[in-house]
Specification:
The chain is 33% helix and 24% strand. By secondary structure, it is of the alpha/beta class. Among the domains are: 209 residues, Rossmann fold (3-Layer(aba) Sandwich); 104 residues, 2-Layer Sandwich (GMP Synthetase, Chain A, domain 3). It is globular.
């Protein structure tokens, strides 16, 4: 295998990919099966079973399109046959970058059924991230929209394909031009498709929100991820009467599995896809489809709360509003029931595993002031100090965890076995297999978690995680930048925004110039700093490292004492 920084000329085999995905120790695999957590059902087989159970019951609503369970299953089969006709086979990696649309759901299950491995990218990602995912996983295909949010994904895909010979196909939903049209792939023949994968096999890759570099690939298997759905369906009381509005980007772990579109389908409910999470569009869908549940990040929840009193929409069907991705302050939490007329469920989880919920029948003050407790009785949670010693109940410490749906390690990218991802795995997981979440929390006597914040080198911008190191590395490529340090700045709306402190060589560039430079390099918009501060030197710690604590203090002082100075990008 070649180094991850060079163009790949030969695609990695499935065995090579599997070897780079850490697996659970044998004793834990045995324990989770013995406890009944892991069942022998793949996602492809799950949908086939659901189609037989629910038949014509509506599974999915996308605009005017309404698909029943049986019809959804048939479309999945037709697309799986078409993908197979193009050469996509078991173990092939396919990067999916689509907005909320029925094609996303169909493509997921078609790839599951073939045993191919989706990599779930976000619509906000740009060339820098997408090329990285395609490169390190030696992806065979990229599935994109033609345009979304004013961005032409086809131009990006062409540029990536020129760099990566292993990326054989670009499949486009919409106007494909010379690329492969998604709609042309459906094969309506009756040729049967066998469920190729096994429950213990890899199912897909999600993306980390880690503190270093671009997102890492999170390998998920059918059995462990399906168990997370089972527990989420229970915790969220999903039934065939549930109508779930997918308002957040569907490729996020939260609207995918907590309970998300996969959990709602497992529970026999109905999915309604919102093209955007704006109150006007979502309120209209809630009224039209009699939506009972949806999920938001805190900034969107605040926007909905401000908009609802003036919207004039009938939101009476809405029973549960889930809020997660970042901490919802208690003052905002207390507004949900009186403003939207529904129950609040706080959700705190991560794509790597552990998910916490407040109970639907918990006392209201507990719901308003905590981020829930682990959903599985087999989740192991510890709150520890800097030396991994337990912190007393009520004390703030680092959250570490392991359990039947928390991964044992990140995908180890080619060329990074020793110096890169393998070393990162040794830092991110304890010798006992506990995952270091990077969250600082306190644990209540009843086992509920109160989130106090993140480790300082990661910025949580309204639920989107930004790695400081990644942005710093991109800034250093600018000829006028000598050094850079990226930190979080407090924000009442998003929780945190991105600020870059910069040491320059020569003339000081304009903030807007640096922002344009980062976008031109393919950095996602949400990662581009919204404020730049230019210094002559960085403050240092006692051992000579950049003191980001001092930078954050400087930022707080400047932000509140000199707001008229406009260093915004």
């Amino acid at each position: 295998m070649t180094d991850s920084g060079t163009a790949l000329t030969q695609r990695a085999t499935l065995d090579e990919i599997v070897a780079r995905c850490p697996d659970y120790p044998a004793e834990r695999r045995h324990l989770y099966r013995q406890q009944g957590c892991w069942q022998d059902e793949t996602f492809g087989a799950m949908l086939r079973r659901l189609a037989a159970e629910h038949g014509e019951r509506v599974a999915l609503v996308d605009g005017e399109l309404r698909l029943g369970y049986r019809a959804l299953d048939a479309r999945v089969d037709a697309l799986a046959r078409g993908l197979r006709n193009t050469g996509i086979a078991r173990g092939d990696r396919v990067v999916i970058q689509l907005p909320n649309c029925h094609e996303f759901v169909i493509a997921c299950f078609a790839l599951f059924r073939l045993g191919a491995l989706p990599i779930f990218a976000l619509p906000a990602h740009r060339r820098f991230e997408i090329e990285h995912f395609c490169r390190v996983a030696s992806a065979r295909a990229l599935l994109i929209a033609d345009r979304h949010g004013g961005f032409d994904y086809r131009a990006m895909a062409r540029a990536i394909q020129q760099q990566l010979p292993t990326l054989e196909q670009v499949i486009v939903c919409g106007e494909a031009e010379e690329l492969t049209p998604f709609a042309s792939l459906y094969d309506e023949t009756a040729e049967p498709l066998d469920d190729v994968p096994q429950a213990q096999d890899l199912a897909f890759f999600q993306l980390s929100g880690g503190t270093t570099g671009v997102p890492k690939l999170i390998p998920r298997r059918h059995d462990d991820y399906r168990y997370s759905l089972v527990e989420s369906v229970r915790a969220c009381n999903v039934t065939p009467d549930t109508v779930y509005l997918v308002a957040l980007p569907i490729s996020h772990n939260f609207p995918m599995s907590s309970p998300g579109f996969l959990g709602v389908l497992l529970g026999g409910g109905r999915l309604v896809l919102a093209p955007r999470p704006s109150p006007d569009e979502c309120f209209a869908l809630i009224e039209r489809e009699r939506v009972t549940m949806t999920a938001l990040v805190p900034p969107l929840a605040m926007l909905w709360l401000d908009s609802a009193p003036h919207a004039g929409a009938d939101l009476s069907s809405l029973d549960i509003l889930q809020v997660g991705g970042a901490k919802l302050v208690s003052e905002a939490a207390r507004r949900v029931a009186p403003t939207l007329g529904c129950r609040l469920q706080q959700v705190f989880g991560m794509a790597e595993g552990l998910v916490n919920y407040t109970g639907l029948d918990d006392p209201i003050e507990l719901i308003n002031t905590t981020q829930g407790r682990p959903m599985s009785p087999y989740d192991e949670v510890r709150v520890v100090d800097d030396d991994d010693r337990p912190v007393p109940i009520g004390g703030v410490g680092h959250l570490i965890t392991r359990g039947p749906y928390t991964i044992p390690g990140y995908f180890i990218a080619p060329g990074e076995d020793d110096a890169g991802d393998n070393a990162h795995n040794r830092r991110a997981f304890t010798a006992e297999g506990f995952y270091r979440t990077g969250d600082r929390v306190q644990l209540t006597p009843d086992g509920y978690l109160i989130v106090e914040g993140r480790d300082k080198d990661q910025i949580n911008r309204g639920g989107e995680k930004v790695a400081a190191e990644e942005v710093e590395n991109q800034l250093l490529a600018h000829e006028a930048v000598h050094d850079a340090a990226v930190v979080a700045m407090p924000d009442d709306y998003l929780g945190e925004r991105v600020c870059a402190f910069v040491l320059t060589r020569g003339a000081v560039p304009k903030p807007a110039e640096l922002a344009r430079f980062l976008r031109a390099r393919g950095l996602a918009d949400y990662k581009v700093p919204e404020r730049f501060e230019f210094l002559d030197a960085f403050p240092q710690t006692g051992v000579g490292k950049i003191s980001k604590k001092a930078l954050r203090q400087t930022l707080r002082e400047q932000w509140f004492t000199a707001p008229e100075e406009d260093n915004r990008a």
